[in-house]
Amino acid sequence: MDKKNLIREAVILGALLHDIGKFVQRAGEKLDEKGKIDAERFCPKNKDGYPTHLHVIFSEREIERLLKDTQWENSANFALRHHLPDKYEDKLIQLADWLSAGERRDREPTEEVPEVNQEPLISIFSQIILDKPKIDEYYCPVVKIEKKIEKIYPKTKKTEAINEIYNFKNLWEEFKEESNLLTKEVSEFDILLSRILYLLEKYTLFVPSSAYKDKPEISLCHHLKSTAAVASCLYDFKVSEEEIQNVIEEIKNNWQGENLKRERFILLSGDISGIQDFIYSVTSEKALRGLRGRSFYLQLLSETIALRILDEFNLILCNLLFLGGGNFTILLPKIDDAQERIEKIKREIQENLFEAHKGKLGIILGYVEFSYEDFKLDKFGNVIEKLKEVLAREKRRKFKEILNYDFFEPFGTENKELKGCEICGEEIYEKEKCLLCESFEDLSDKIKNAKYIEIQRVSKQSIKETVNNWYEPLSALGYNYWFRSEKEVNKINYSNLVFSLNGTDFLNKNCSGFRFEAIYSPEGTLEDMANKAGDKEKGIKRWSALRMDVDDLGNIFSLGLRNKTISRFSMLSYMFSLFFSMGIREIIEEKYKDCCVVYSGGDDLFILAPWSDLPEIAQDIYESFKEYVCKHPKINLSGGIYIAPSKKFPVYHAAKEAGFAEDKAKLGDKNKITFLDNALTWKKIGEIKQVSDEIVKLLNLGMPRSLLTLLYAGYRDKKLFAEKKIPMFRIWRLFYAIKRLMERHKDFSGDLEDLRKKFITDFELMPELDISVRWAELLTRKEVLR
Fold first, then answer.
1. 66 touches 76 (CB < 8 A)
2. I need a surface site. Which of 197, 231, 341, 640 has the fewest CB within 10 A?
């Protein structure tokens, strides 16, 4: 191996693991005699002459253990010296560490104070401040990432987050045991780095980075990841030792100095355009099988483009700060030809996507250059805002890289009228479906049974002919994807990146990492889904669509997140994405087997299900989300439910109507769900459901359906009074009608009285009684299956 490459790799690993010793300290480990001697040599000293920053000694020991007998062992020395740097590499890691934190890091610590070392991490969500004073602090439980979203719900009490079972010592012991498998059968740097990165994600996501007097607000995992990303940029830019030293001194000088203004970095974001039209353009009621495959293809496309950019700059996975929901963010070095490389990649990707999808899909790439100074706490948010402005401008200029006279030529020259694919409408010669739609169905089948995803680098190429398979555009960009079931483990090539799917036990399986995907889809068609609505004999048989997303996400990042550092942005983005992958997967797969997750990632979702299930699904998602975000009053979800009027109603129409319903829920105060064309607060829909359930209960017990007419007449009377069409609201008529029913159906008198108390309070009629009645009517109507 080239010596320069080996040093670069050792620097990156040293940066990625430079503070792993803080994890060791929190577990209660103490220095042995040799460690105390080393502390005198390699640790700064406080005003009394005692060594501080003892975590570097633990970091060196741990890196030596992790990388024993590998060619990267010297990375331990770089980590050891990053607080008293001696060589260029040590200083580079120190600077990367400080930039990642966005603040001075040379203060005197109190690392040996047990109360500080055992503090749990404060949840990133409880650090969000919008309009109101800061909410009460919530604490992340000291646990590893597994499968259950409930296990990582933040806690209101420190004793719930850290206790005899869940504590740093036990977590550290588990980390040590699993990390023994880290270098097993690994010789490639990218595989080793991926394994370390995901091992840190699994065990240190909720370990605080700070072991000082600071409040424990930064995740060790994301501090380490962003430090490695910054270090790789500094190394690849070939920043001089003199410049690094000058910048370090200027940061110590309260971030004052001209060297800090030097632009050495690029923040780039990408966004797949045309996602909604691509997914929702399907025209057939038979589209359910391929719908999930079509959506997952977009996730793979976004990932492939991100990997293609990393490859162009010879960067590592750490530089991919965020990936999810069809978009990504990457940290790049501002090398001499960076702009030319980015423009070349944009053109290459746009040309391939245009050839593959005839303009239905494109890539929006935007980037901003920024300086050392922009890493400061109060400045990095400005970089994010500038990047958002650039992306907004680029969205208005889609395909500008490939616009020419040929762009406007028709795709075909034949005059023969062809039939359209029953799924997407694309013209085809014969059969009912085009080959590409058939391949999306095949992809849906593959991911449904997959336990592993294997990613293989291949030679890049240009698309010249009609695309007939989902994998062709990805291969053209340089990557193949293989989906392996448990029965196909023997087919896996472990020299490729291999990820365990929806489970974090990856090293035992010789994988490079893990990922969560909400990929559940039932067997059958949309008609089969509709037939499962209600019960076997009652209720209308329809499927429905749900769309949900986070309210005011831009404000949460730009206005709500205080102390805007690169590691905090990385952490907050990751935590939202984790809920929409791991959290949604768990809710759907464990409770709603008839539901199809078309997509769920980033900060939004689209789900198809029997109509009678969707209100409960939406409520479960909302309640889980609120627990996950510390019950923050300003971090909410809004959604829209649309019930398809027929079993064969086009998916794209239902998706658009669900989108309109979601928009309606976001009017005014947001934080609502639109159901039966009414925007309701989450609390209100629960109250409406209680009344509906009581009505359904009575009807199922034999109460005549005239009860529905009676209740609706009472609601209509109040509505006419509100519209001043009648002189008064005659609520006594409703009381009288209920009384008569109770006399005629004495067996139901108690249940009728309970129902009355739910919709009449202090002689006031429940304003949404009509929705409860309509809901109950749909659940109990008999419908002949066709």
1. no
2. 341
| Contact in structure between 16 and 84 (CB atoms under 8 Å) | no
How many CB atoms are located within 10 Å of the residue 91 CB?
A: 21
| Interatomic CA distance for residues 242 and 442, integer angstroms | 57
Whole-number Å distance between alpha carbons of 329 and 318: 11
Find out whether 326 and 298 touch, Cβ atoms under 8 Å. yes
Question: What is the distance between the alpha carbons of residues 463 and 469, in angstroms, rounded to a whole number?
Answer: 12
Per-range mean pLDDT, top range of 277-286, 648-657, 713-722, 747-756: 648-657
Q: What is the DSSP string of 631-700?
A: T-TT--EEEEEEE-SSTT--HHHHHHHHHHHHHHHTSTT--EEEETTEEEEHHHHHHHHHHHHHHHHHHH
Q: At what angle do helices 220-237 and 3-16 cross, to 10 degrees?
A: 150
Token digits of residue 441: 């169905």
User: What phi and psi, each to the nearest 5 degrees, are found at residue 712?
Assistant: -70, -35
> Helix, strand, or coil here: 291?
helix
Calpha distance 244→257 (Å, rounded): 13
CA distance 57 to 62: 9
Q: What percent of the chain has pLDDT over 70?
A: 91
- For residues 352 and 706, what is the distance between their CA atoms, to the nearest angstrom? 62
- Could you tell me which residues come within 8 angstroms of residue 303 by beta carbon, excluding any fewer than 6 positions away? 323, 328
Centre a 10 Å sphere on the Cβ of residue 444 and count the other Cβ atoms it contains: 23
Sequence-distant (≥ 6) Cβ neighbours of residue 377 within 8 angstroms:
102, 103, 563, 564, 565
Look at residues 125, 122, 120, 124 and name the one whose alpha carbon lies nearest to residue 143. Answer: 120
φ, ψ for residue 262, nearest 5 deg: -70, 125
- Answer for the pair 67, 9: CB distance below 8 angstroms, yes or no: no
Count the neighbouring beta carbons within 10 Å of the beta carbon of residue 508: 10
- Number of alpha carbons in the 13 Å side-chain half-sphere of residue 59: 28
Task: Answer whether 647's CB lies under 8 Å from 626's CB.
Answer: no
Identify residue 681 by its one-letter amino acid code: T
Task: Pull the structure tokens for residue 49.
Answer: 């002459």
Residue closest to 95 by CA, chosen among 220, 234, 265: 234
| Overall pTM surpassing 0.90 (yes/no) | yes
Are 638 and 662 spatial neighbours (Cβ–Cβ below 8 Å)?
yes
Strand, coil or helix: 290: helix
Q: Round the average pLDDT of the chain to a whole number and report it.
A: 88
Q: How far apart are CA 508 and CA 188, in angstroms?
A: 18
Please report how the helices 706-722 and 682-700 are oriented relative to each other, as an axis angle in degrees rounded to 10. 140
Give the lowest-confidence range in 115-119, 154-158, 376-380. 115-119
Q: Measured between alpha carbons, how far apart are the two ends of the chain, in Å?
A: 69
3-state secondary structure of 50: coil
What is the token pair recorded at 455? 């990613």
Q: 781 Cβ partners below 8 Å, 6+ apart?
A: 538, 539, 540
Let me know the angle formed at the C-alpha of 99 by 98 and 100, rounded to the nearest 5 degrees.
90
- Residue entry with tokens 């109360």: 115
Nearest Cα neighbor of 161 from 202, 115, 120, 215 is 120
Q: Which among 585, 590, 591, 556 has a CA at the least distance from the CA of 573?
A: 556
Residues 592, 520: Cα–Cα separation, whole Å = 10
Angle, vertex CA 624, rays to CA 623 and CA 629, nearest 5: 100
Given a cut of 50, is residue 114 above it in pLDDT? no
User: Contact 85/91 with Cβ under 8 angstroms?
Assistant: yes
- How many angstroms separate the CA atoms of 65 and 50, rounded? 27
Residue 451 corresponds to which tokens in the numbers above?
């336990």
Q: Which H or E element spans position 720?
A: helix 706-722
Place of tokens 């602090």: 137
The pLDDT > 90 percentage for the chain reads 63
